[in-house]
Design goal:
Layout: E1 4-7, H1 19-37, E2 42-48, H2 53-62, H3 66-78, H4 81-84, E3 90-93, H5 98-113, E4 117-127, E5 132-134, E6 153-162, H6 168-176, E7 181-183, H7 185-196, E8 202-203, E9 205-207, E10 217-218, E11 221-226, H8 228-233, H9 235-238, H10 250-255, E12 261-267, H11 271-285, E13 292-296, E14 299-301, E15 304-305, H12 308-311, H13 326-333, H14 335-345, E16 352-354, H15 356-386, H16 398-419, H17 423-444, H18 446-452, H19 459-479, H20 484-493
Parallel strand pairs: 1-2, 1-12, 2-3, 7-13, 12-13, 14-16
Antiparallel strand pairs: 4-5, 4-6, 6-8, 9-11, 10-11, 14-15
Helix pairs in contact: 2-3, 5-11, 6-7, 7-11, 13-14, 14-15, 14-17, 15-17, 15-19, 16-17, 16-19, 17-19, 19-20
The structure holds zinc ion (ZN).
Length: 513
């Protein structure tokens, strides 16, 4: 199987992480874990975007050193690994990691050699919150940033520009031919429309003074700092050692320059950067492109947008009710409940609304009431009717053969749903196993078979119990990418020790009381 490299975007660290970003982390984690369970070579990267002017301003607001603020908040992102059960292999910090600056300088020089930079006097409207220039047509009627509701600054200075316009046709061809896949299709169409509207060259540096000296200096021009987006996008290859003293860095060759998949997970708000700017930078540098860009929508919390200002309230500390702290949520409800809500409830297309009530209801219905209840029933019956020994099936009935057929198809259904970037369908495919196993219990009625047994074991009861234990094991196996810890517990419950299944204990606590 070819290599599979999957990345999250790297968030700004001017504030602590919120639930919206946890969605992306968990989605990427599922893809990575899923490929590993299928025996593939996987690398999963996350990290933090630290060279932003926003961090400088947030630090000024708090009256602390920029590096201190960045270190503190970056740690909060890296530390999500334990509560969210994230399995990333690497975590890059763009202000600290020596690989990053070397790689960004290398990328810059490659684009410069391609003749894609030029200096130009620039006057524009700049939103610091977005770290992006806006055309007046892109602002609200009263001239504010549509995301931040703030008035952009007039900025006038000489910058380095990148010849994005040169790559318009090439990008269009790469996307329409499917060599660069952007999904879902509505997002692909959005990118094509953007390309067709005409790509303008964009500023890729700012004056050192305006950047307050924070960021990566432009190679050969110490008075300019590399535009934070240009620098941040590079993390997907700088973390692989691109441009290092070993220019033929092994990780880069394996994960980026080989024939494997290179998958970026991104939120809809940064689509343009990942589906237009980044591929153009790579084309300019003569490097391979990502193979897929998977775009997720956003979460709302109790009907309110997780606003960037709420999530990233510079120094506001208290934030707002709409900025849910994922680590705090896990400490109250557990990793399984939080991951399951994110995976089972968030649709492939469209925003999803988070409330604690929904998380609790979903966990109690599916985890305690579904997975937990099924495994408990089956293990209890094996103990009651067969003294804990999982019987061997010598016959099959319609009910047991149908259940085995559903189990045999489960992996394929999960594969197909995840390949279509549809977590809800993938989690639903595992859930189908629970429904079918419960249906098998209703149809075979093991308690009646057991009651009618006189001396000799009824092979139909053996067949039913064997198929049900196998189904529970399959639930555990297929659940691994989604709920790694719960999956382990389920498999343990269904695995005999010294010939007998362990006594049943609750797998999940009820959250709703
Ligand atoms: Zn903005």
């Amino acid at each position: 199987m070819s290599s599979y490299y999957v990345t999250t975007t790297i968030p700004y660290v001017n504030a602590r992480p919120h639930l919206g970003f946890a969605l992306e982390l968990v989605q990427a984690d599922v893809l990575a874990r899923h490929r590993r369970t299928r025996g593939g070579a996987v690398r999963f990267l996350s990290g933090t975007d630290e060279n932003s002017l926003k961090n400088v301003l947030a630090a000024e607001n708090e009256g602390v050193d920029v590096q201190d603020l960045v270190d503190r908040n970056a740690a909060a992102f890296a530390e999500l690994a334990a509560p969210l059960a994230l399995s990333f292999d690497d975590f890059i910090r763009t202000s600290r990691d020596p690989r990053h600056r070397i790689g960004v300088e290398y990328l810059w020089r490659r684009c410069a050699e391609a003749g894609d930079f030029y200096r130009k006097e620039y006057v524009g409207l700049y939103c610091v919150g977005c770290e992006a220039f806006f055309a007046e047509s892109e602002l609200t009627e009263d001239g504010r940033c549509p995301d931040h509701g703030t008035e952009p600054q007039q900025v006038s200075e000489e910058n380095w520009f990148f010849r994005l316009s040169r790559y318009q046709e090439q990008l269009r061809e790469l996307i329409t031919s499917g060599r660069l896949r952007i999904e879902p299709e509505s997002r692909r169409n959005e990118v094509l429309a953007l390309i067709d509207s005409g790509l303008r060259d964009f500023s890729v540096s700012r004056s050192r003074a305006r950047a307050r000296g924070w960021g990566i200096p432009v190679p050969g021009d110490e008075e300019q700092v590399v535009y934070v987006w240009w620098d941040a996008l590079g993390n997907y290859v700088t973390s692989l050692g691109l441009g290092g003293s070993d220019t033929d860095a092994e990780p880069y060759r394996t994960w980026w320059a080989g024939d494997g998949e290179r998958v970026h997970l991104v939120g809809k708000g940064v689509l343009r950067f990942h589906a237009v700017y980044w591929p153009a930078m790579l084309l300019s540098a003569g490097l391979p492109l990502p193979t897929r860009v998977l775009v997720h929508d956003y979460l709302t919390v109790s009907g309110r947008k997780i606003s960037k200002s709420a999530a990233a309230g510079a120094g506001s500390g208290a934030g707002s009710a709409s900025a849910v702290d994922p680590a705090a949520l896990v400490s109250r409800f557990g990793t399984d409940a939080v991951r399951w809500w994110l995976l089972r409830e968030v649709p492939r297309v469209g925003d999803a609304d988070f409330t604690e009530e929904r998380l609790i209801a979903r966990a109690d219905a599916d985890l305690a009431g579904g997975f937990g209840n099924l495994v408990h029933r089956v293990v209890t019956m094996v103990h009651r009717y067969r003294d804990g020994v999982v019987p061997t099936a010598t016959v099959s009935t319609t009910a047991t053969s149908e259940l085995r057929a559903v189990c045999a198809r489960a992996a394929g259904r999960v594969d197909a749903a995840l390949d279509a970037f549809d977590y809800r369908a993938a989690a639903g495919a595992v859930w189908t196993l629970v429904e079918e196993a419960n249906r098998c219990i209703d149809r075979t009625r093991p308690w009646e078979l057991a009651k009618a047994e006189r001396g000799a074991a009824d092979p139909r009861l053996d067949a039913a119990l064997a198929a049900l234990v196998a189904a529970c094991r399959e639930v555990g196996e297929q659940l691994r990418p989604f709920l790694p810890d719960a999956a382990d517990r389920i498999v343990v419950r269904c695995t005999p020790v010294d010939g007998r299944l362990p006594e049943s204990e609750p797998l999940f606590a009820r959250l709703g009381g």
